[in-house]
């Protein structure tokens, strides 16, 4: 009893510790009433009924099976279940169909398009339309050329609709019918002969004289302009008038931005396209007459020859008659005519543009008014026996000045006849630069390079790394090299040695280039210029750090970029 009283006293103390100020213990708030109900007497079963007291709320126990079965076959609930079932699968199928349509309709990453034919090249350069012959087709085949270039005599430019001239052009196009080579014409559109219909119309009708640089009623020469490269006045007397004639006597300069000439020359271009010609290169573009001003030429501040006098062409700067503002826009106008006549045709120049910015559009910085510009002296510098400048810097300057995205014509006719460089080495190196090689069939680049070499070049030019790859230049003087690489494709590393001795390829190799590469191709005389230890073999592996490049030779290596860690 004493013990119980102590325990009771302790319980009271505990209760005081658990709560105070009349706040009851939460655990004691709920009190359940338990009832035992007798069940089956034989089995001794009993039911236990747990109730609540003190106003407690009964716990939710849900519906029993018997209660649920009352609704199992109820029409309302059966219909509702079917509605939910159908809606679930309809939504599921709808999401599946939607996902498929999104996949099908989503914009796809367009596959890189192959280069247009005139950018694939190379192009074979022949002489005149009047001297074409069936043998030319085999010459073009040796070069695996995409285009065959012929010159249309200047006097025939505006006579292409005459039957005799038209027949010559049809004959030329027919020669290449069925081959992969397309016909390209070099045209001289900037002057017309005295007996041409254009000049006769201008003499008879003063309104037609806007097609020429025509000064009416002058007694004295309009200015001090001289014939190109000569020492005589560029003005010719026609009746009581003076007409500009910068080139041959009896040929008068045309204003290439006049409406009359735009219509006339545009008609010439469209007619030639209809005859089957697929490319045009214009001559004398830097002399295109676009002016209204007839100011005197100024003395050149840096003449090539200080012994020249006022009657010599080289004495003047010629800023009034060459590289005139708006030239790019005028050329683009003719380019549009050609593209509208045939979307596969191209329109370019036949000579070095010299001042690339003049050939660019006035409203679109960097964009040219022509398809394939020709610029720079890199081919000449490359073919020198002893280049007097860094080849890497010369190449970098050429590409930078012409525009990083430009696709140049590499004129292999600029290769020096007495070059010590292996012509196949020059052809390989130039053909993998951005641009298209133009090979004159009477030049060393044709005569001393095999058909197999050009086939190798063509196969490389069709790869994704060449057509759409990035260009990176490398230098290890006196060597010059570059790489072409497109993500997901093998890259090419091209090296040229312009010297007469083997040179170590001590390039500073970036992290994405491997040390070892595979030999793809090399120039024809490569192994002949090396001892046994330095010779290479097709598909052989070389270490770039240990490689010595043969004299006057090129080598093309293939590599897989190193992934950055």
TrEMBL record:
Sequence intervals crossing the membrane: 82-106
Enzyme class: hydrolase
Any one of the GO BP annotations: L-leucine import across plasma membrane
Keyword terms, alphabetized: Membrane, Signal, Transmembrane, Transmembrane helix
Residue ranges of every copy of the Glycosyl hydrolase family 13 catalytic domain listed in the record: 167-318
Annotated CDD domains: AmyAc_maltase-like
EC numbers: 3.2.1.20
GO annotations of cellular component type: plasma membrane
InterPro entries cross-referenced by the UniProt entry: GH, GH13_cat_dom, Glyco_hydro_b, O16G_dom_2, SLC3A2, SLC3A2_N
Compositional bias per record (Basic and acidic residues), positions renumbered to this chain: 1-12
Sequence segments annotated as region (Disordered): 1-22
Organism superkingdom: Eukaryota
Protein name (Swiss-Prot/TrEMBL): alpha-glucosidase
